[in-house]
């Protein structure tokens, strides 16, 4: 992150890396700089959010929001 005129510029993150996949779960991880990030106030930490779409209602719901480096999405329906 770079400060310019009092604002932080956040570079576009890389897509998540897919880890173990089963019929009912998928492991996602992402490479974020946590060491340098944690030296700043928490309001400036990069927070990851994962959402899922409800195809019937065309709405989105948050299934993960936090500062971790990986998350396992569980209770997935097979072949969807």
- The number of strands is 7
Structural class: mainly beta
Strand order of the largest sheet: 3-4-7
Identify the CATH architecture: Sandwich
Give the overall silhouette. globular
Distance between the termini: 36 Å
* Percentage of residues assigned to helices: under 10%
Helical segment tally?
Answer: 1
Poorly predicted tracts of residues: none
Largest sheet: 3 strands, antiparallel
Order of SSEs: EEEEHEEE
Mean pLDDT: 84
CATH domain class name: Mainly Beta
Give the strand content: 35-45%
Structural features, described:
The protein has 80 residues and is mainly β. The protein has one domain: Immunoglobulins (Immunoglobulin-like, Sandwich). 5% of the residues lie in helices and 42% in strands. It has one helix spanning 34-37, and strands spanning 2-4, 7-9, 17-21, 26-29, 48-54, 59-66, 70-73. It has a three-stranded antiparallel β-sheet, with no helix packed on it. Strands 1-2 form a two-stranded antiparallel ribbon. Strands 5-6 form a two-stranded antiparallel sheet. The longest helix has 4 residues, at 34-37.
Task: Write a short abstract of this structure.
This is Fibronectin type-III domain-containing protein. Residues 12-80 form the Fibronectin type-III domain. 5% of the residues lie in helices and 42% in strands.
């Amino acid at each position: 992150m770079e400060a310019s005129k009092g604002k932080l510029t956040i570079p576009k993150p890389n897509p998540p890396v897919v880890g173990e996949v089963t019929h009912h779960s998928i492991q996602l991880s992402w490479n974020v700089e946590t060491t340098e990030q944690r030296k700043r106030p928490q309001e400036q930490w990069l927070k990851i959010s994962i959402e899922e779409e409800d195809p019937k209602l065309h709405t989105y719901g948050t299934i993960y929001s936090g500062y971790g480096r990986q998350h396992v999405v569980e209770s997935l329906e097979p072949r969807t």
